[in-house]
């Protein structure tokens, strides 16, 4: 093994887990669950194919935290006994091989587009299927291209969704057997909506300033940490993405405030997962202003030396180079694209 590639394959400690290398499989929505959001044999096969050696870290796909947070068909959830049992079978299946899998919890607030195939089969009442978001700002939904104006969540509903997060992570860790949870704070979903000024125009304690826009994310983190502990809690962010109407003109003050607060609040936080400015949701970014790389490096420096996962546009050459220079964990697309990628 050359000295250039050596760092990528060195072990690293992430919370209570020792990983055999620094290649991570990031979450990807697969839509292979049942109509009642139960992960089935296709999910078990998918993850087993991508983890054939001990020491791997897989981050499970987007997962609904509750009935009110659902919006896509055939995406798994983890709030019913049947759903928990489906996930538990998956976690039990991977133990013999030394695999390590994380649950990714998500609220699909402003992405609950009407007209998605199979959406009418979701068993929700009229109130729970209403489109809600951080603020009542028009949004173009990711998979349908449909534009709607969601209703802004009330303060009482915000508390309810925080409770849904707590129930979901407790189910994941204490009942389904996951090693930890990663909060989806990226790509224009609920946590990201509260963080960014383009999607948060609230005038209460959850909007109007950097500190207030960070409040929902920090309250979710505090509640989850109280339920499962700092070492089992992580967060994914996309400060430079414009997915689903995101894209602050200057994300630096907002995201440095949030990252600094998490660092000080949770010294044993499992890791931070950041999507690089090289990608915008599903697409590569052709021209990237130099200042975005400077901002990205500054955010990483703020978090160092804690574990950090960097995702976005990594090929073999870039991945080896970044791992060698920084020691970061990296998301490698071939783990998703090819079930025969063996680490």
TrEMBL record:
- List residues of the NADH:flavin oxidoreductase/NADH oxidase N-terminal domain: 7-318
Can you name the source organism? Athelia psychrophila
In terms of InterPro entries, this protein maps to: Aldolase_TIM, OxRdtase_FMN_N, Oye-like
PANTHER family under this entry? Answer: NADH OXIDOREDUCTASE-RELATED, NADPH DEHYDROGENASE 2-RELATED
Superkingdom as given in the UniProt entry: Eukaryota
Under which name does UniProt file this protein?
A: FMN-linked oxidoreductase
The record, for Pfam families, names: Oxidored_FMN (PF00724)
Molecular function via GO = FMN binding; NADPH dehydrogenase activity
């Amino acid at each position: 093994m050359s000295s250039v590639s050596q760092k990528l394959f060195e072990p690293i400690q992430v919370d209570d887990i020792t990983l055999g290398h620094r290649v991570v499989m990031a979450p990807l929505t697969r839509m292979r669950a049942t109509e009642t959001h139960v992960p089935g044999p296709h999910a078990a096969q998918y993850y087993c194919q991508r983890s054939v050696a001990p020491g791997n870290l897989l981050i499970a796909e987007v997962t609904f935290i509750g009935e009110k947070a659902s919006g896509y068909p055939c995406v798994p959830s983890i709030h019913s006994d049947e759903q928990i049992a489906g996930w538990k079978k998956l976690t039990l299946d991977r133990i013999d091989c030394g695999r390590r899998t994380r649950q990714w919890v998500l609220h699909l607030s402003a992405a609950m587009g009407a007209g998605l195939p199979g959406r009418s089969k979701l068993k929700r009442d009229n109130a729970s299927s209403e489109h809600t978001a951080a603020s009542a700002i028009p949004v173009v939904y990711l998979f349908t291209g449909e534009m709607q104006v969601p209703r802004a969540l009330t303060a009482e509903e915000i508390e309810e969704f925080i409770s849904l997060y707590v129930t979901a992570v407790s189910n994941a860790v204490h009942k389904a057997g996951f090693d930890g949870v990663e909060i989806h704070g990226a790509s224009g979903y609920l946590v990201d909506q509260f963080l960014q000024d383009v999607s948060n125009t609230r005038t209460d304690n959850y909007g109007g300033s950097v500190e207030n826009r960070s409040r929902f994310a920090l309250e979710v983190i505090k509640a989850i940490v109280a339920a499962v502990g700092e070492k089992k809690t992580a967060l994914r962010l996309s400060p430079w993405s414009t997915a689903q109407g995101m894209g602050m003109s200057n994300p630096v003050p907002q995201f440095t405030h949030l990252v600094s607060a998490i660092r000080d609040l949770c010294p044993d936080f499992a890791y931070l997962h950041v999507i690089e400015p090289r990608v915008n949701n599903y697409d590569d970014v052709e021209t990237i202003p130099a200042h975005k790389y400077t901002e990205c490096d500054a955010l990483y420096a703020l978090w160092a030396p804690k574990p950090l996962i960097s995702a976005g546009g990594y090929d073999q050459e870039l991945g080896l180079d970044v791992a060698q220079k920084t020691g970061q964990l990296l998301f490698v697309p071939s783990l998703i694209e090819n079930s025969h990628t063996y680490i």
